[in-house]
Specification:
Layout (H helix, E strand, L loop, with lengths): L1 H26 L26 E2 L5 H4 L7 H9 L8 H4 L5 H7 L3 E2 L3 H6 L5
Parallel strand pairs: 1-2
């Protein structure tokens, strides 16, 4: 009988010693907090969106009318004042006002007809 009491006492002692660890393991929060998302590095930047740029010397009337604020009459004026050496010629030749130019200058380019002909397709 003494042996049985000793065995029960040791068992109870083990259960009591193990129970705080079991409770702690169940209710404890993780030791390391979740890592915040790291900011993108230079190699992980967003892909650039391609802006369509129309050549003032070769664009059709329909292409020019896709530009902000360019209607049929303005497209005709742009075509009539060709050839252009630079984008700023639109203002210097008084085809567009400065405000109109500011709206479309990021969507236009100027290459001469000889540059456009010698440029390899697909590049």
């Amino acid at each position: 009988m003494k042996r049985l009491l000793t065995l029960c006492a040791v068992s109870m002692l083990l259960v009591l010693l193990a129970s705080p660890h079991a409770l702690h393991a169940q209710s404890a929060t993780p030791a390391m907090p979740a890592t915040p998302a790291k900011p993108p590095t230079k190699t992980e930047t967003k892909p650039k969106t391609t802006v369509v740029k129309y050549n003032l010397n070769t664009a059709s009337k329909e292409e020019l009318m896709k530009l902000a604020g360019v209607d049929s009459a303005t497209a005709d004026k742009i075509i009539a004042a060709r050839p252009y050496k630079s984008k700023k010629d639109l203002v210097s030749k008084k085809v567009l006002t400065q405000a109109e130019y500011e709206r479309i200058h990021g969507h236009i380019k100027v290459t001469s007809n000889t540059q456009a002909a010698t440029k390899k397709p697909g590049r």
